[in-house]
C-alpha cells in the first residue's frame, strides 16, 4: 500500500511538473502544447483513478462511482499512446483520438453493467472474463505509438532510435509487474515514457533548429560574399587594373598572414578565423574609390596636390561605405574588420599616413598586412600613370621603407618568403 501510494504521488508530481514546463515553454506551437497537455493530464487522470480503486479503502457503497471512474480510465488509458503520437507531431491525430475514444467508451459502457471486462462486489475490484478486450486495446495502442515514433523520427534530420527503444522498454517494464505480479507501477512507466517522448521530440526540434540556423548562416555568408564580390566588381568595371589588383592582393594578404603565423610573428592574433576574414574582406580595401571622379582615378600622370587630397578621401569613404552596406546583415566584428582594412590600409608605421595619422601598432594588424600587399602589387603592376617595376626592385623598395611605411616585423616575414611572392602566378 505505501509503495503504491508513493508511486502514484511520484507519477502525479512528474506529470504536474511536465504540465508546468509545457505551459512555460516557448519552443512549441500552440497545437503542440495542447497535445502534450492532453497527454500529461490523461496520465494524471488514469493514475489517480487506478489508485482510487486499489488504495485499500474500498467500500461496497462506492462501487457505482468506482465503476464509472474505471470505465473512464479504461477508455482513456489505451488513448494515451495516440495522444503521444499527436504530441510527437503526427498529423490528423484528433480524428483518430475521437474514433479510438468512442470505440473504447462504447465497449466499456456496454460491458460495465454486466461485469464482463471488470466489476466490483463486496470484496472489491475484479477482472471480468472479457478483460482481454481492454488488453487488446492497450497493447494495440503501444504498437501504434512505436510506429508513430519511428515515422516521426524519419521526418527529422537527426533520429535517436535508442530513445524510441527505451520508451518501449520502459512501457513493457511497467506492464509486466502489473500483468503477472499485480504490482501497480504501470502508470509510473507511462509517465516516464510520456516524459521521454517530450524530451525526444524537444531534442528533435532543437536539432532541426540548429541545422536551420547553420543553413541560414551559410546563406548569410554567401550573401556577404556576393555583396563583397559585387562591390569589388564596381571598382573593376571602372578600372580593370584595379580589379586585377583586388584579386592579387587577396592572395598576398593570405600568404603573408599564414607565413607570419608560421614564423611566430603575431601568431596569437593570426588565427584561422582572422586569416579567413582578411582573405574574404581584402577585396573591399579600395571600395572608397567609387567616390573618386574618373578624371582623378584614371589620370595618366602625376596628381596635383588638390587631386591627391581628393584621392586620399577614398580611405575614409571606404570605411563609411563598408559600414553602410554591411550594417544589418552581419555582426559587428565582420563590419569592423572590413572597415579597418578599407580605412587604414594607407596609414604608415611612422604615423605620417592617412586618414588618421595612426602610428605603429595603433594601426590594426589587418590594415598593416593589407598595406604591404597593396604597395607590392601596385609597384609590380603597370598603371595609367606609371610603368611596372620588377618584383626584385619592388622588394628592395619595400625593404627600404621597413619601419617608416611598414611594420618591420611583417616586412621581415615578407622578405623571408620573398620568393613565394615573386613566383606567385598572377
Structure description:
The protein has 426 residues and is mainly alpha-helical. It folds into two domains: 2-212, Up-down Bundle (Rhopdopsin 7-helix transmembrane proteins); 239-422, Hypothetical protein af1432, CATH 1.10.3210. The chain contains 17 helices and two strands. A two-stranded antiparallel sheet has the order 1-2. The longest helix has 53 residues, at 186-238. The protein is rod-shaped.
The gist of it:
By secondary structure, the chain is mainly alpha-helical. It folds into 2 domains: 2-212, Rhodopsin 7-helix transmembrane proteins (Rhopdopsin 7-helix transmembrane proteins); 239-422, Hypothetical protein af1432, CATH 1.10.3210.10. It has helices spanning 2-24, 30-54, 63-76, 80-87, 93-111, 131-155, 161-181, 186-238, 240-262, 272-281, 294-297, 305-326, 332-344, 365-380, 391-400, 408-416, 418-422; strands at residues 118-121, 124-127.
Amino acid at each position: 500500500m505505501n509503495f503504491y501510494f508513493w508511486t502514484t504521488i511520484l507519477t502525479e508530481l512528474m506529470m504536474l511538473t511536465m504540465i508546468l514546463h509545457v505551459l512555460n515553454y516557448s519552443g512549441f506551437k500552440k497545437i503542440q502544447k495542447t497535445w502534450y497537455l492532453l497527454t500529461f493530464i490523461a496520465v494524471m487522470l488514469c493514475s489517480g483513478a487506478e489508485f482510487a480503486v486499489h488504495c485499500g479503502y474500498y467500500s461496497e457503497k462506492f462501487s457505482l462511482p468506482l465503476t464509472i471512474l474505471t470505465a473512464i480510465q479504461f477508455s482513456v488509458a489505451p488513448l494515451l499512446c495516440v495522444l503521444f503520437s499527436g504530441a510527437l507531431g503526427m498529423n490528423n491525430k484528433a480524428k483518430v483520438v475521437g474514433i479510438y475514444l468512442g470505440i473504447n467508451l462504447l465497449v466499456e459502457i456496454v460491458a460495465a453493467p454486466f461485469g464482463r471486462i471488470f466489476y466490483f462486489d463486496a470484496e472489491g475490484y475484479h477482472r471480468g472474463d472479457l478483460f482481454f478486450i481492454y488488453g487488446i486495446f492497450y497493447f494495440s495502442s503501444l504498437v501504434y505509438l512505436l510506429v508513430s515514433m519511428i515515422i516521426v523520427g524519419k521526418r527529422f534530420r537527426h533520429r535517436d532510435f535508442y530513445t524510441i527503444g527505451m520508451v518501449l522498454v520502459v512501457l513493457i517494464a511497467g506492464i509486466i509487474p502489473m500483468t503477472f505480479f499485480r504490482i501497480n507501477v504501470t502508470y509510473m512507466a507511462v509517465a516516464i515514457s510520456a516524459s521521454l517522448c517530450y524530451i525526444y521530440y524537444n531534442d528533435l526540434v532543437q536539432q532541426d533548429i540548429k541545422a536551420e540556423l547553420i543553413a541560414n548562416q551559410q546563406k548569410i555568408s554567401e550573401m556577404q560574399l556576393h555583396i563583397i564580390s559585387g562591390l569589388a566588381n564596381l571598382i573593376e568595371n571602372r578600372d580593370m587594373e584595379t580589379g586585377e589588383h583586388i584579386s592579387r592582393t587577396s592572395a598576398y594578404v593570405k600568404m603573408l598572414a599564414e607565413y607570419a603565423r608560421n614564423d611566430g610573428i603575431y601568431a596569437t592574433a593570426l588565427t584561422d578565423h582572422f586569416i579567413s576574414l582578411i582573405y574574404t574582406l581584402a577585396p573591399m580595401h579600395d571600395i572608397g574609390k567609387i567616390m573618386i571622379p574618373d578624371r582623378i582615378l584614371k589620370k595618366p600622370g602625376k596628381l596635383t596636390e588638390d587631386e591627391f587630397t581628393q584621392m586620399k578621401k577614398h580611405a575614409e569613404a571606404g570605411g563609411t561605405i563598408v559600414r553602410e552596406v554591411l550594417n544589418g546583415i552581419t555582426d559587428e566584428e565582420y563590419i569592423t574588420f572590413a572597415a579597418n582594412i578599407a580605412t587604414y590600409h594607407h596609414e604608415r608605421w611612422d604615423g605620417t599616413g592617412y586618414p588618421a595619422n595612426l602610428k605603429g601598432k595603433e594601426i590594426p594588424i589587418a590594415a598593416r598586412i593589407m598595406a604591404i600587399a597593396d604597395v607590392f602589387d601596385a609597384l609590380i603592376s603597370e598603371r595609367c600613370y606609371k610603368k611596372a617595376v620588377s618584383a626584385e626592385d619592388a622588394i628592395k623598395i619595400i625593404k627600404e621603407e621597413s619601419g617608416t611605411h611598414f611594420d618591420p616585423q611583417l616586412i621581415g616575414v615578407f622578405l623571408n618568403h620573398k620568393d613565394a611572392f615573386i613566383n606567385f602566378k598572377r
